[in-house]
């Protein structure tokens, strides 16, 4: 007899409040609008210090305004009314035999999630998110592209986080992820589970379908400012105490906005058998300095209407956050997304090819492995004559639990812009030895449970049906208990490249 499901009662220490679950929509960007030294958040009206891969509005430029984005001809993302710009550092491979860098082309189908994550604010209220306001400029990592160390426990401790694990510094460090992809292994790694870029030997043996880079943005806003000073670029927003799972916003940040999450896949399996190493365009071969930027520009009230109708899981519009199932969105074809490129007249120097081979990273960013912070390159500085031997031995190593997600890589013919010319070749090829691998932490079961947070001294249970599974008991038609099936991982199907579909899993953290 087919069993029915009945949700167990959850009992908290002081009071039980059943709170809204987390919803989301996930927006593929099947085109790359451009790759260039452009960053209107950190370097407005200037040339950025390093290369970025840019998705979204064709109006993106160093001097772009919100109106420039909105009035652009196209967007490289699926939702036509979203003229925002989204960007991250580009990944490169240094071939030690050729003594040259080359661009690692991302897999077609970068994903930007808009997550509906309620949170507690300073007066103890638990409030729902609103649309990210137009004109909002956000950076995920407090401007610290020079971070080269991780100072927290590995793996992340279970929720709720307290003390040193819940500071803004800690939450920023935990807001980046490097997900090892392998179709053949199960269970998959969780989103934001590993916070560093694995070395090439690990990628070759364990991540047979590439690596997925992830970055999470804050949801707590001061309700007034759309950007911050050039000192940190992030003081107008803050992370909630539980990261992707909400929690408490700091005092002074009492407006909750939709949470952005980026996922970008790089086909590192294409470089198997070649000698070299991977690095981001900011000279980071550890991953600790990975980050994301966003400049928000939606037409009219589309984002707010979508948040209320299609983001709120109480009024769920379909399965898996698929934008085409939300009646608010106008969906454009994959071809239209892929054909959208940055406006050449606005960005300048569009004929520079930075895909490689290059004798130095654009902007002459040297490879710096830490653990001390990297230093910015001086103007005209030549690349180093030799690389550090490796990231420090303290670099954490996750026990392999690769994801089954992997996509068909698209051919890279991306336009690169505003890159510096390469200097003369170094006298010796930079060398990079594999990162020493300390003992792996013990394997941990994926935790599927509710999470409990404190507000005004009372314990409140948050039931998160997207990123944390609820607990159920099974009964037959007469209401008698029956043996429970094995725990069920929540998964969804995603389309990244060439229409290929694959299982994709997030889990509670």
Low-pLDDT stretches = 1-20, 380-476, 484-503
Structural class determined from secondary elements: mainly beta
User: How is the main sheet built?
Assistant: 6 strands, mixed
What is the tally of helical segments?
Answer: 6
Portion of residues within helices: under 10%
CA-based gyration radius: 22 Å
Give the mean pLDDT: 75
Sequence-ordered SSE layout with sheet pairings:
Elements: E1 4-7, E2 23-29, E3 34-36, E4 52-56, H1 66-70, E5 85-89, E6 91-95, E7 100-103, E8 110-116, E9 119-120, E10 126-127, E11 137-139, H2 168-173, E12 176-180, H3 200-206, E13 211-216, E14 220-221, E15 237-238, E16 255-256, E17 259-266, E18 276-280, E19 293-295, H4 302-311, H5 334-339, H6 344-347, E20 416-417, E21 451-455, E22 458-462, E23 472-475, E24 491-495, E25 501-505
Parallel strand pairs: 3-20
Antiparallel strand pairs: 1-23, 2-8, 3-4, 4-5, 5-19, 6-7, 6-18, 8-17, 9-10, 11-19, 12-13, 13-17, 14-15, 14-16, 21-22, 24-25
Molecular structure report:
It is globular and about 55 Å long. The model is unreliable at about 1-20, about 380-475 and about 485-505 (pLDDT under 50). It has helices spanning about 65-70, 170-175, 200-205, 300-310, 335-340, 345, and strands at about 5, 25-30, 35, 50-55, 85-90, 90-95, 100-105, 110-115, 120, 125, 135-140, 175-180, 210-215, 220, 235-240, 255, 260-265, 275-280, 295, 415, 450-455, 460, 470-475, 490-495, 500-505. The chain is about 5% helix and about 20% strand. It has about 500 residues and is mainly beta. A hairpin with a 4-residue loop joins strand 6 (about 90-95) and strand 7. The strands form eight sheets. It has a six-stranded mixed β-sheet, with no helix packed on it. Strands 2-8-17-13-12 form a five-stranded antiparallel β-sheet, with helices on one face. It has a three-stranded antiparallel β-sheet with strand order 7-6-18, with no helix packed on it. It contains six helices and 25 strands.
């Amino acid at each position: 007899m087919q069993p029915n499901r009945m949700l167990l009662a959850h009992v908290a220490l002081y009071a039980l409040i059943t709170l809204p679950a987390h919803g989301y929509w996930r927006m593929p960007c099947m085109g790359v609008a451009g790759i260039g030294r452009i960053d209107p958040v950190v370097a407005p009206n200037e040339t950025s210090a390093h290369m970025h891969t840019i998705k979204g509005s064709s109006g993106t430029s160093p001097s772009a305004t919100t109106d420039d984005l909105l009035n652009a001809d196209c967007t490289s993302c699926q939702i036509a009314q979203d003229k925002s710009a989204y960007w991250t550092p580009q990944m490169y491979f240094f071939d030690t035999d050729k003594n040259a860098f080359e661009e690692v082309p991302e897999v077609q189908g970068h994903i930007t999630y808009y997550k509906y994550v309620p949170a507690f604010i300073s007066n103890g209220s638990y409030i729902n998110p609103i649309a990210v306001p137009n004109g909002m400029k956000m950076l995920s990592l407090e401007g610290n592209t020079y971070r080269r160390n991780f100072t927290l426990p590995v793996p992340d401790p279970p929720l709720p986080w307290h003390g040193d694990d819940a500071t803004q510094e800690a939450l920023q460090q935990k807001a980046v992820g490097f997900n090892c992809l392998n179709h053949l292994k199960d269970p998959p790694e969780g989103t934001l589970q590993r916070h560093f870029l694995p070395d090439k030997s690990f990628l070759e043996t364990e991540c047979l379908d590439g690596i997925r880079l992830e970055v999470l943005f804050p949801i707590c806003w001061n309700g007034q400012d759309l950007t911050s000073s050039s000192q940190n670029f992030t003081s107008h927003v803050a992370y909630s105490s539980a990261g992707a799972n909400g929690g408490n916003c700091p005092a002074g940040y009492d407006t909750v906005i939709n949470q952005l999450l980026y996922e970008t896949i790089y086909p590192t399996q294409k470089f198997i058998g070649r000698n070299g190493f991977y690095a981001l365009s900011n000279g980071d071969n550890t991953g600790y300095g990975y980050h994301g930027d966003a400049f928000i520009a939606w037409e009219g009230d589309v984002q707010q209407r979508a948040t209320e109708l299609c983001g709120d899981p109480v009024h769920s519009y379909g399965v898996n956050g698929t934008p085409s199932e939300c009646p608010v969105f106008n969906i454009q074809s994959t071809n239209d997304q892929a054909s959208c490129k940055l406006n050449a007249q606005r960005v300048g120097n569009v004929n520079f090819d930075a895909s490689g081979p290059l004798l130095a990273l654009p902007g002459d960013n040297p490879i710096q492995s830490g653990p001390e912070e990297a230093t910015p390159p001086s103007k005209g500085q030549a690349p180093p004559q030799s690389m550090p031997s490796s990231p420090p031995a303290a670099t954490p190593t996750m026990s392999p639990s690769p994801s089954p997600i992997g996509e068909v890589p698209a051919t890279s013919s991306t336009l690169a812009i505003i890159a510096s010319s390469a200097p003369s070749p170094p006298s010796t090829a930079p060398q990079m030895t594999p990162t020493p691998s300390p003992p792996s932490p013990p394997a941990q079961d994926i935790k599927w449970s509710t999470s409990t947070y404190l507000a005004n001294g009372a314990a409140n249970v948050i039931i998160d049906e997207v990123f944390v599974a609820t607990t159920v008991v099974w009964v037959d038609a007469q209401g008698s208990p029956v043996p429970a099936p094995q725990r069920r991982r929540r998964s969804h199907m995603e389309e990244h490249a060439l229409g290929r579909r694959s299982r994709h899993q997030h889990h509670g953290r």
